[in-house]
Amino acid sequence: MNTSLDWSALRDFLAVAETGSLSRAAKKLRLSQPTLSRRIAGLEAQLKAQLFQRTPRGLVLTEAGDKVLSGARRVEQEALAIERQAEAAQAALTGTVRISLAEILGALWLPPRLAAFHAQYPALCIEVLVDNRAVNLVRREADIAVRMFRPEQPDLIAKKVGTMYMGLYGSREYFARRGEPQTKEDLKGHTLVGFDESMSQRPPVQRLEAMFSRDRIVHRSTSFIGQFQATLAGIGLGVHECISADADPHLKRVLPEDVNHPLEVWLVTHEDMRRSPRVRAVFDYLETCFTAEKNQLQGMAA
Asked: In terms of CB atoms within 10 Å, which of 78, 137, 226, 243 comes out highest?
């Protein structure tokens, strides 16, 4: 193997191998597709081997590519460990900290709470990754994640900062038009703003939708904010995070004893990044915010 082979070439190779697509890998790497295509061609020329084969299902590894894959993953682990340790050694509270949160928390809850943080740490930039999936902290997809479950990876540090409840809400306009359900049986006559089909097999979603007549699920969305807006518009009842829905005067919670979904809230970071002063500052600030709003998370009066 040519000794000039560097980590960035293997990083490009890994992104294509894992996504099976030049376009998806380019988006992940923040490159143009032609640039990434040239880089992969250059790597293949350097190794004197074809690494990918085009198929109707996308790009798949050749036998040579499969052999490169395991070594590339080992190099990735070492490179990322070096990056994390180097960042942890930086004492200055400058630079960027990337936080991953689910849509409602990232788009609605977090922004109003960052003004006080920026006043205290004006040289820090907070980059918010709004993503409902669990990002890979080992691969530095984020420095800190807010998760609704406790992670099990041994190299991650996690701290439970509260329990977030989800309840059933309707708009004031909807109740004026359709009436307010008083019992679980009343829900059969109401419409529901539901989850998209990709979540329809999850047990909590199935239990919720079973309370309504199937033909009364009149709206579905992949976006939690889209669902929130549909409920505000009076399309139907919807299940939403209490910390956001309780704060909206146009929404009212109903049947809290029958529709009450608790989710543990965990702050998570990699053990190496916890040593970084800037990551620790953001981690501790988020913990303070969640702790101070414990009652709001649970859907209770402050």
From this structure: 137
Phi and psi (nearest 5°) for 39? -65, -40
Place of tokens 């040579």: 64
The residue type found at 215 is D
C-alpha to C-alpha distance for 239 and 230, rounded to whole angstroms = 11
Name all domains of the chain by residue range, CATH numbers in brackets. Answer: 7-88 (1.10.10.10), 94-302 (3.40.190.290)
Least confident of 85-99, 126-140, 222-236, 278-292: 85-99
Q: Which residues contact 126 (CB under 8 A, 6 or more apart)?
A: 96, 97, 99, 114, 117, 118, 282
Instruction: Give the chain's radius of gyration (CA, Å).
Output: 23
As a whole-number percent, the residues of the chain with pLDDT over 90 amount to: 40
Decide if 164 contacts 242 (C-beta within 8 A): yes
Per-residue model confidence as pLDDT tens digits over 201-251 = 667 777 888 888 888 989 998 888 999 999 999 999 999 999 989 999 999
Our CA angle for 151, 153, 159, nearest 5°, is 45
Please, are residues 143 and 153 in contact by the beta-carbon 8 Å criterion? no
Place of tokens 């050694």: 89
Q: What is the spatial distance between Cα 13 and Cα 60, in angstroms, rounded to a whole number?
A: 12
Q: What is the pTM of this model?
A: 0.68
Distances (CA, A) of 127 to 104, 124, 209, 286: 16, 10, 36, 14
In the block, tokens 């620790």 appear at: 280
- 114, amino acid identity: L
- For residues 235 and 219, give the distance between their C-alpha atoms in angstroms, rounded to a whole number: 8
d(CA 64, CA 48) in angstroms, rounded, equals 10
Q: Within the chain, what is the greatest distance between any pair of CA atoms?
A: 73
